[in-house]
C-alpha cells in the first residue's frame, strides 16, 4: 500500500499542445491509445475554455511521450509543472445564472417548454431565475424559469444603456414644471 500513495503523490499534470479546435479529438485518441496499450495515464482533461491544450496526469514525462507518440494534431508538450489549481477554474462548473445575460439566445432543457428556444429578457441572480421570450411562439410569451433549466446557445447584443433616457426625461419634466410655475407667477 505505501507504494500506491507514493505513486499518487508523484503524479504530475502535463500540458499537451494541440491544433486549435482539435482538443477533444486529441483527448479521445489519447484515451483509446492508453486503453489499448495499457499506458498508465491517470486523467485526460480537455476544458472548453482552453484552446490548443489538453492536460494529462501521469507519474512522469516518459509515460506522456509514450501516450502522445504519433497522435494526430499534437504539436508537443509544454515543459514545466502545471498546478492542479491552475486548471481547476476551467473544469469547475459555473452557475448558469452567471453565464447568461440579457438578449442571449438559450434553449430550455427542462420543464413544459423543453427543447424550445428563447431570448433572455431579464436575469434575477438573487433568485437564480431568468425571464424568457419564446422565439417559437406566435406571440410574445414571457415566462420565468429557474436558471438551471436553460442552456446558452449564443450571445446576444449587450443591453443598451437605459440610464441616459430617464435622466433626459427627468430634465424635461423639471423644465415643464418650471414653465408652469412661471405661467402661474405671471
> What is the general shape?
elongated
Distance between the termini: 99 Å
Q: How many separate helices?
A: 6
- Count of strand segments: 9
Q: What is the strand arrangement across the widest sheet? A: 8-7-6-5-9
What number is the mean pLDDT? 82
Question: In the CATH scheme, what's the topology name of the largest domain?
Answer: Alpha-Beta Plaits
CATH superfamily of the largest domain: NusG, N-terminal domain
Order of helices and strands: HEHEEHEHHEEEEEH
> Judging by the overall fold, what is the CATH architecture of the largest domain?
2-Layer Sandwich
The gyration radius over C-alpha positions equals 27 Å
Fraction of residues in H or I helices: 25-40%
Structural class by helix and strand composition: alpha+beta
Q: In what range is the share of β-strand residues?
A: 25-35%
Largest sheet: 5 strands, antiparallel
Top-tier CATH class of the largest domain: Alpha Beta
- Taking pLDDT < 50 over at least 5 consecutive residues as the criterion, the unreliable ranges are 1-8
Map the helices and strands:
Blueprint: H1 2-10, E1 12-18, H2 23-37, E2 43-45, E3 53-58, H3 61-68, E4 74-82, H4 84-91, H5 96-99, E5 105-108, E6 117-124, E7 129-134, E8 142-146, E9 150-154, H6 164-185
Antiparallel strand pairs: 1-3, 1-4, 2-3, 5-6, 5-9, 6-7, 7-8
Q: How is this structure best described in words?
A:
The protein has about 190 residues and is an alpha+beta fold. The chain folds into two domains: about 90 residues, 2-Layer Sandwich (Alpha-Beta Plaits); about 60 residues, SH3 type barrels. The chain is about 35% helix and about 30% strand. The chain has a five-stranded antiparallel β-sheet. β6 and β7 form a beta hairpin. It starts with a helix and ends with a helix.
Amino acid at each position: 500500500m505505501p507504494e500506491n500513495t507514493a505513486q499518487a503523490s508523484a503524479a504530475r499534470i502535463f500540458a499537451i499542445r494541440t491544433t486549435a479546435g482539435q482538443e477533444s479529438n486529441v483527448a479521445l485518441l489519447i484515451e483509446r491509445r492508453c486503453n489499448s496499450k495499457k499506458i498508465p495515464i491517470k486523467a485526460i482533461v480537455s476544458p472548453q475554455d482552453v484552446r490548443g491544450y489538453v492536460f494529462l496526469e501521469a507519474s512522469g514525462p516518459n509515460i506522456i511521450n509514450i501516450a502522445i507518440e504519433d497522435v494526430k494534431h499534437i504539436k508537443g508538450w509544454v515543459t514545466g509543472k502545471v498546478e492542479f489549481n491552475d486548471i481547476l477554474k476551467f473544469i469547475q462548473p459555473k452557475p448558469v445564472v452567471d453565464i447568461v445575460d440579457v438578449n442571449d439566445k438559450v434553449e430550455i432543457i427542462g420543464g413544459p417548454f423543453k427543447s424550445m428556444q428563447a431570448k433572455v429578457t431579464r436575469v434575477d441572480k438573487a433568485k437564480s431565475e431568468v425571464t424568457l421570450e419564446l422565439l417559437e411562439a406566435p406571440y410574445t410569451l414571457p415566462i420565468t424559469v429557474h436558471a438551471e433549466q436553460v442552456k446558452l446557445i449564443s450571445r446576444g447584443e449587450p443591453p443598451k444603456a437605459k440610464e441616459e433616457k430617464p435622466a433626459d426625461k427627468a430634465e424635461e419634466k423639471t423644465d415643464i414644471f418650471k414653465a408652469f410655475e412661471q405661467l402661474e407667477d405671471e
